[in-house]
Amino acid sequence: MTSQVPDLWPPSAQEVVFLLLGVVALGSALLVVTTRQLVHAALWLVVCFGALAGGYLVLTAEFVAWVQVLIYVGAIVVLLLFGIMLTRAPIGRSAGLDSGNRVTAATVAVGTAAVLVTVVVQGFATAYTPLEPGGGAAATLGASIFRSWVLPFEALSVLLLAALIGAIVLSRTDIRPANPAADAGGPAAPTTPPHPPDPAPPPADGSGATAGETGSGRVSRDGG
Amino acid sequence: MNGTIPAPTIEYALLAPMLVVFGAAIIGVLVEAFAPRYLRSAIHKPLTLLTLAGAFVITIWQARTGIPTTPSAMGAVAVDGPALFIWGTILVLAFVSVLLINDEGHFVASAAAVPGSAEEERALTEGATHTEVYPLVLFAVGGMLLFPAANDLLAMFVALEVMSLPLYLLCGLARRRRLLSQEAAVKYFLLGAFSSAFFLYGTALLYGYAGSVDLAKINTALGSVGGQDTLLYIGVAMLGVGLLFKIGAAPFQAWKPDVYQGSPTPITALMASGTLVAAFGALLRVFWVALGGLEWSWTPIMWGVAILTMVVGAILAITQTDIKRMLAYSSIAHGGFLLIGVVALGNNQQQNASALSALLFYLVAYGFTTVGAFAVVTTVRDAGGEAWHLSRWAGLGKRRPLVAVVFSLFLLAFAGIPLTSGFFGKYAVFQAAVAAGATPLVVVGVVSSAIAAFFYVRVIVLMFFSDPAADGPSVVIPGGTWAVGAVAVLATVVLGVFPQPVLDLAHTAAQSLFVR
Amino acid sequence: MNGYFSSYLTVAVLLAIGLAVVSGALLVNRLLRPHRPTPEKLLTYECGVDPVGEGWAQSQVRYYVFTYLYVVFAVDAVFLFPWATIFAAPGFGVATLVEMFVFLAFIALGILYAWRKRVLTWT
Asked: Dihedral through CA B448, CA B454, CA B460, CA B464, nearest 10?
């Protein structure tokens, strides 16, 4: 991979574009974490991901760039926005976003950034690869996925299925069918065999605690 | 891409236990989608149990017909002696955990209903259940099988996610103390996602260093690539963070108490046993196979982590008043003891094999004991659910002596008292560590065992020598829980009195070490 | 090499032109229109009657579930693209076809489950 390293000055057009995209990504990322408006944070994240996708394009990783746009910008940011809208987080400035740890957070962030930048610069200072288009195309990736990475690929489908099931378990409220007689999900409630509603201990001892259990114990479920 | 490239080879026979578990999970999802509500539980329970038993039988058969010496599935999976032993352990522990799950009343009626709302009320009166728990458990177990057997870091990452995601969900499905349960799920999810990000970043850096994510190739690159040490060390550190989080090693242990406390107790049992075994298998594989050549660099750090973990686990458990949190800290301490075995890597293959076999034996012993302990925790119930506060356990020995004796046995096994399985586990691991020159670690281990013994004995004293409260908890032992308790007691006692067969089995499994 | 970059440059220029047109139109509008706000004009429009309540309503979880389903299928599609370019190539036989169909089957099972749980109905 390492070949004759060209000089850093004058930079080629690709390097300039890559640098600019990097600045945009960094700036928008900073704005994501410092802005006071929650929805603006999600939108700056779009800019950040878009800049990253542009960076991938410059590095001739076309397919990854379009995956970035499709999945990250198209799906994940939308999920974030819907998540924000599901909560009572208001539009506009919200005061509660700042945890008051600005100094600590800034120190940790700068420290982490310094470590990672040092690692990458030191690790790849002398590595140079000329950019050949076609290496990142869908066909090349497909060839390697369906050749050497088949097992992780199939495991990924299992992961997606598990995630899907789990999300539906957590969010599905039992939507009553319009016509109870045409219930496709199973027989109506009266014919379900009686599940013991709670494993409430048969009161062999302790009178007051159990007498109140069946009545009010149902509604307020959380002692902790 | 010419016409002479062969199709990828997947050794289905070798991967059969995993495929069986995933296949049953798929069938479970089909059952969920199509079976009428009253039939679902009746189909899931035998299906899950038979699957786990069948996968176990296949593992045994595979171990007897010959252990492969090369990685399988295009280098993604390494089915070797230790992997098969760990598979067997995970499958048995998952089997007993599912027996716990089978008993009614651990899981929420409707997860989407807001706690305290009319919807929740309605779901309870209708007798709604979330039988999706069974396929989710099978997905998690499948991930637990793939995680320690993965031969490259990408497959390991996918397995980590397959294992963790269903567990994040299952943590939030407790029937009682729902807000606490949801908090546990959110905490586990956030921290777990963060640690997976560390794992992935470490993988990326190591790929940059070695040019491959295959464990054996990383090991070869350790010797041949020069001048990239920063990349290597930071990559290893990040990878280590991801793996140590899963084990619950300090300073990444903060999730364990909250998650164990909030989850439904059968899921806690599954996590405490299965996830720990799988995570240790993966940790061993990464650090012994991929980073074996770097041993002089990571062993000192691992020493520090082990000491910190043991001390934190032992000391912080003393202040706990919730029995599940106490058991969680004890689990952290045991993770520390196991880490002592991880640093016992030497140059001698015989020594490595004995360290590995000690670790495998400890994992089996600890797994059974912890499932048994959590099974007992499910049986002691107050009006509002499980009696979680330690003071409610006072005098249990006087009212239900058998339950108290069984729990005491498990606590003594945790403490490592002779004649219990915990003693032989600790002895084997400490012996291996001393042989590898890690005597200070063993000293710290013994001291923290003594500290831990304090709070174990405190609970025993509380049960037997205190007076029970007037409105004390009652003990309800459904059939499945009884079976789990019996199996755990049997395992603890037999492994304590007669550990040789399992020790030999572990030794045979560890003999060939890890496949490269 | 230059073909690659010049083609993406075309895409970038197109994006820039699109942005320029939209923002230019809005900018010109802003410069040309009168700007004399009064309290009544700044009220939120609610079909001509006086607005009641806050401008923010908590959305329902079913929108989120649809987005979530989209994420899963977007990841599915991401794997379909490279597969589609190579599965007919020489050297990749029925095995590749079957692998992808297994992948699709697993995820189709998810949508089947969602359908049966009445998540896909719009009540």
From this structure: 170
- Are B152 and B171 in contact by the 8 Å Cβ rule? The answer is no
Its ipTM equals 0.91
Reported as a pLDDT band with limits 50, 70 and 90, residue B321 is very high
Q: Is the domain A1-94+103-131 a CATH 1.20.120.1200 member?
A: yes
> Quick check: B169 and A166 CB within 8 A?
yes
Structure-block tokens of residue B132: 């999706």
What's the confidence (pLDDT) of residue A201?
41
Is C122 within the bounds of a domain?
A: no
Residue C45 pLDDT grade (very low, low, confident, very high; cuts 50, 70, 90): confident
B118 close contact with C: CB closer than 8 A: no
Q: Which of B284, B283, B425, B431 is nearest to B368 (CA)?
A: B425
Average pLDDT over residues B315-331: 93
Residues of C with Cβ-Cβ distance to A173 under 8 angstroms: 61
Sheet holding B385-386, edge to edge: B385-386, B380-382, B474-475
User: Among B273, B246, B88, which Cα is nearest to B157's?
Assistant: B246
Overall residue count recorded for chain B in this entry: 516
Give chain C's domain count.
Answer: 1
- Interface membership of C109 toward B (CB under 8 Å): yes
Identify whether the C-beta of residue B100 lies closer than 8 Å to the C-beta of residue B374: yes
pLDDT (average), residues B275-297 = 91
Per-residue pLDDT, A91: 66
**Using CB atoms within 10 A of its CB, is residue A14 exposed (0-12), middle (13-18) or buried (19+)?**
middle
Q: What is the CATH number of the domain that holds C33?
A: 1.20.58.1610
pLDDT digits (tens, 9 = 90+) for B236-260: 999 999 999 999 998 999 999 999 9
B29–chain C Cβ distance below 8 A for any pair? yes
For Cα atoms A170, A173, A174, give the angle at the middle one, nearest 5 degrees: 130
For the segment B127-136, what is each residue's pLDDT rounded down to a tens digit?
788 888 999 9
Nearest chain A residue to B107 by CA: give it.
A198
